[in-house]
């Protein structure tokens, strides 16, 4: 089996009829890095920076962050590492920064927190940029963006941090700045956001939760959580079309990208990059290499007119069985 995996790791992520997709990984711990490289990841589509924050009992200093980020960037260089700015709130709480709310998923989360605390945001992006010195493989991504204003405000801060670092003598390129599309409002403004962002990436975990009004962690409503719900698929399709109309690359880094059936539908929709847990990467690559893009286009056409998640799930399962 190890030999099979090795073999697959060096094979391109492309369909039998030659359509290529970038397969990247989601990371948080250094342990994810080794596995990812062994499996032939083309880079990191989502580095969850809150993970090192969650493992501490106080905010890591700018220098501590620089060291952590440097390790990630070095391990993957020259491949791209997409670092997401701190995404706390919701279900992710820091013991040293308590947020007490009755409705945390609709509360102070992600970019809202760090725009209210520019000192946290600035220390983080300074640490990321310093860590990228001489490597040039950093991309910065913003979580929970609901509209243009947050992207513009964050860009101002990133530019300011970059200018200050240059004044301090660091010769670092300005990293590409992208956003996550994981809130319904961002789906409806995907075109405008994509025109202003250097890249966009769908967070299908939160997007599914918000579109279907289903808490992603509540087992009582787990049966309502359908990443292949017709409404979710329509949103996913709309985002990739809006992104491409703006000339912007579109990726996805939610769990759906790591499920072979989901990954094939996303590829058929035109997603340029799929980012997933390293564990799922070989399965997704193997599925991709087993199909023709033309056939997945046909599958997509069929499921896009179906009216229930169950019907779509059944079709995708049947197709996967046929693929083997
Ligand atoms: C998502 O919401 O799909 C996502 C990738 O981010 P997270 O799971 O960290 O919220
Ligand atoms: Mg999310």
UniProtKB/TrEMBL annotation:
Protein name from the UniProt record: phosphoenolpyruvate--protein phosphotransferase
Family: Belongs to the PEP-utilizing enzyme family.
Organism: Microbulbifer thermotolerans
Superkingdom in the source lineage: Bacteria
Coiled coil: none
Full-protein interval shown: 420 to 743 of 764
Subcellular location(s) per record: Cytoplasm
């Amino acid at each position: 089996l190890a030999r099979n995996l090795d073999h697959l790791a060096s094979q391109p992520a492309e369909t039998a009829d030659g359509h290529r997709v970038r397969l990247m990984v989601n990371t948080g711990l250094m342990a994810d890095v080794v596995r990812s490289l062994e499996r032939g990841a083309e880079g990191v589509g989502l580095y969850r920076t809150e993970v090192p924050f969650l493992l501490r009992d106080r905010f890591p200093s700018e220098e501590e962050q620089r060291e952590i980020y440097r390790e990630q960037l070095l391990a993957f260089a020259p491949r791209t590492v997409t670092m997401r700015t701190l995404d706390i709130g919701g279900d992710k709480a820091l013991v040293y920064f308590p947020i007490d709310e009755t409705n945390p998923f609709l509360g102070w989360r992600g970019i809202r927190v760090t725009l209210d605390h520019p000192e946290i945001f600035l220390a983080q992006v300074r640490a990321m940029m310093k860590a990228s010195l001489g490597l040039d493989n950093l991309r910065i991504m913003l979580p929970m963006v609901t509209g243009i204003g947050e992207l513009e405000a964050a860009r101002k801060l990133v530019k300011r941090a970059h200018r200050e670092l240059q004044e301090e003598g660091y010769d670092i390129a300005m990293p590409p700045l992208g956003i996550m599309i994981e809130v319904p409002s961002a789906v409806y403004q995907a075109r405008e956001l994509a025109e202003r962002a250097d890249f966009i990436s769908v967070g299908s975990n939160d997007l599914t939760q918000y579109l279907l009004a289903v808490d992603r962690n509540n087992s009582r409503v787990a049966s309502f959580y359908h990443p292949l719900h017709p409404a979710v698929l329509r949103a996913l399709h709309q985002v990739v079309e809006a992104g491409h109309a703006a000339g912007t690359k579109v990726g996805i880094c939610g769990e759906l990208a790591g499920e072979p059936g989901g990954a094939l539908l996303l590829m058929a929709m035109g997603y340029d990059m799929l980012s997933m847990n390293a564990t799922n990467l070989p399965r997704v690559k193997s599925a991709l290499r087993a199909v023709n893009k033309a056939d997945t286009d046909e599958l997509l056409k069929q499921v896009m007119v179906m009216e229930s998640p169950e019907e779509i799930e059944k079709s995708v399962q049947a197709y996967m069985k046929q693929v083997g």
